[in-house]
Structures are given as structure tokens and as C-alpha cells.
């Protein structure tokens, strides 16, 4: 290779790295909008609805609503919950769950042990890289069955097949871990206003609903948040994945 060709290749590599850095910065800014600022974190817990409303409005989401539900809400059928929220269908009822990468657990002679992924040990320790984050918040319908394998395949492709799929399992994060990361208790988890900027994945099925509206947790167990799907997608640009 001549000197001119080598110089051109070096410049192209520098440009590609710069583009990757810019893309990563844009993604970090996007998921940062889903988490709390220091000032917002000082707002009292009783102001959840006001705080989330301000955050949504600031991001250009204007068609949204909050509903208070009875204490026995989760003891009721999906049809009853639909009626309490005045939703059009049970397909609009969704939940936000925190998923995490955990070391691959395998068995040998009935003895279980963890195989440590060297890339994960070095890099995947937080949520700073949306393409290869330790945690993800997944929005899925209550009527659907989550397919973690689809999510794993999506992230494998997103990372250009550089991370071996067999090394990690995508699992539901423990309740206490979810609380620590989001600031929201079980059945109150929402992807808006979290304590930690966690990348968000929304099930493709939700984006295809005719109503263009979905409901999820509103930050408190008895508070639910509904919003225009298209506005949510435009404001927060989550990963859209067929995960059910």
C-alpha cells in the first residue's frame, strides 16, 4: 500500500470513529431525557404527576393523561383495568420492566457456575452505552408474552455481532435492583423520569396499535400514565423491537 493510500485509510478510520462518537453522544442525550435531573430529584414524591407532566411537555409530548386507580387494580381482570382507564382495548395496557444482562449460567456434573464474559466485565457495567448497556427498560403489553431471546438477538445485531450471544442471558432484574435504578416501586415503574438513564425498548406491537395510544405505570402503584404513541416515539426515540 502506498503512502497516499495509507494516509487516506487512516483519515477514513478517524472519520468513522468520530461518527461513532457522535452517534453515541446523541443516544446518551436521548436516554438522558428519560431520567431525572438533579433539580427534579429534589421534588417531593407526592409531586410525581406534576414532575412527569413537566418532563413530557418539555419533550413535546402533549397528548397524555394520568389516572388514579383503586388499590385492588392488579387483582382485577385486564378488561376491568381497561374500563377503569377508559382505554379502547386491553392491548393498550402495558408495563415497563427492567431487564439486565447476567453472566451465562451453565451446568457441569450438576455443579452450577458462572462463566464471566471478559468484554462484559470490562465494558458492560452501566448504561452509558445504549447499544451495549447493562440494563434496559422494556415496555410490553400485559396481554403479550415477553420473548427475551428476540431482545438478545436485536442487541446482538445492534452491536454488529461482536458480542457472542451465548455469553449472556437477558433476565428480569430483581425488584430491589429495579427500585434502585428507576426510583419507582413494583407496579409503579415507568420509563419516564427514572433515577438512572436506562435505554428503553418498546415492543413493536404497541407501535402498531390502531389507537396510537398506550397506558403504563405512572410512577406510583395507583397512578397510571397514558400517552400518544407517536409522540412518545418522536420525543424519546426508543428502540422498537419485536419482543413478544
TrEMBL record:
Entry superkingdom: Eukaryota
InterPro entries per record: YbaK/aa-tRNA-synt-asso_dom_sf, YbaK/aa-tRNA-synth-assoc-dom
Pfam families: tRNA_edit (PF04073)
Residue ranges of domain YbaK/aminoacyl-tRNA synthetase-associated in the record: 131-232
One term of GO molecular function: aminoacyl-tRNA deacylase activity
Family annotation (PANTHER family): CYTOPLASMIC PROTEIN, YBAK_AMINOACYL-TRNA SYNTHETASE-ASSOCIATED DOMAIN-CONTAINING PROTEIN
Protein's name in the database: YbaK/aminoacyl-tRNA synthetase-associated domain-containing protein
Protein source organism: Triticum urartu (Red wild einkorn)
